[in-house]
TrEMBL record:
Zn(2+) binds at H9, E12, H104. NCBIfam families: PRK02259.1. This is Aspartoacylase. Belongs to the AspA/AstE family. Aspartoacylase subfamily. Keywords: Hydrolase, Metal-binding, Zinc. It comes from the Eukaryota. It comes from Emiliania huxleyi.
Length: 289
């Protein structure tokens, strides 16, 4: 059982669009992938209808084992998460869903990024397959570059929707504004999904493809917060992302180089707290304001 989900964040339209296209092609998909049962999940319809990221709380932060076990949580997303986990789970190695592929978009210049967690070797092999075949000649030129990102955590700790299944994979594509469809972002999302499904069909049919000897990945190390807000009501951050860093997701940033520009024009340097050289991602993501 392979669950393809979208609309986890209601104002990320691409995943919902791709789900609708998958539903139109359900018979074709079943014929092409006889070893897996592909189903779709529209994760947060009320948030999508309201054109909001979420109703009460971020749905994609509700799926850690501790949060799912919390009986006092009363938000809409807390209840929705429990319903999704009941259908796909129970969360962990015994989950009814073997794989969940959750589709997202970002306002940051991330290209097409496959995000997997360190606990799932199958997800990492699937990402390696996508990386190997991203530039295949039998496909049109890829609209956006492909990268692989690894989050180091246990499945119990992982809070994302995809972590409910035995193996979770996230597709993150950008840049694109919230509440908007772009053909290149849709194309990259569908290309990545198509390759992931091709890998899963090979894997579950017993024809496991060769795994490359090496795979370039970016490992999540931590977060750097914005400078505290400059205006009285706190709606604005206290600094903007430095011009030299904006749109340079995955490019190296060295300690001492400009990170932010404050209201008075002074530059705030990266302090090296996460390493002498890092590769920032989700730079200036609108959802994090």
């Amino acid at each position: 059982r392979v669950v393809v989900s979208g609309g986890t964040h209601g104002n990320e339209y691409t995943g919902v669009w791709v789900l609708q296209r998958l539903q139109l092609r359900s018979a074709e998909l079943a014929e092409q992938h006889p070893s897996i049962a592909i189903e779709t999940l529209f994760a947060n319809p009320p948030a999508h209808a309201a054109n909001r990221r979420f109703i009460d709380d971020d749905l994609n932060r509700q799926f850690s084992a501790a949060t799912l076990a919390d009986t006092t949580a009363s938000s809409f997303e807390a209840g929705r998460a429990k319903a999704i986990a009941a259908d796909m789970g129970p969360k962990g190695a015994a989950a009814d869903a073997a794989v969940c592929i959750d589709m997202h978009t970002t306002t940051a210049n991330m290209g097409c990024t496959v995000i997997v967690s360190s606990y799932s070797t199958l997800a990492l092999r699937a990402a390696a397959f996508v990386h190997t075949h991203w530039d295949d000649a039998d496909e049109a030129s890829p609209p956006l570059p492909l990268r692989v990102m690894v989050e180091e955590c246990s499945q119990c700790e992982a809070a994302h929707l995809a972590s409910v299944a035995r193996h979770g994979i996230e597709i993150e594509v950008g840049p694109t504004p919230q509440s908007l469809l772009r053909a290149d972002v849709v194309a990259s999302t569908e290309r990545c999904l198509r390759l992931l499904l091709r890998y899963l069909e090979l894997h579950y049919s017993g024809a496991e493809p060769a795994t490359p000897a090496t795979l370039p990945v970016y490992v999540s190390l931590g977060k750097v917060p914005f400078v505290d807000g400059a205006d009285a009501d706190g709606a604005l951050p206290g600094a903007v992302v430095a011009a030299s860093l904006q749109d340079r997701d995955f490019a190296p940033l060295r300690a001492g180089e400009a990170l932010f520009e404050a209201l008075d024009g002074s530059l705030v340097p990266y302090d090296g707290s996460l390493g002498e050289v890092v590769h920032p991602v989700f730079i200036n993501e609108a959802a994090y304001y």
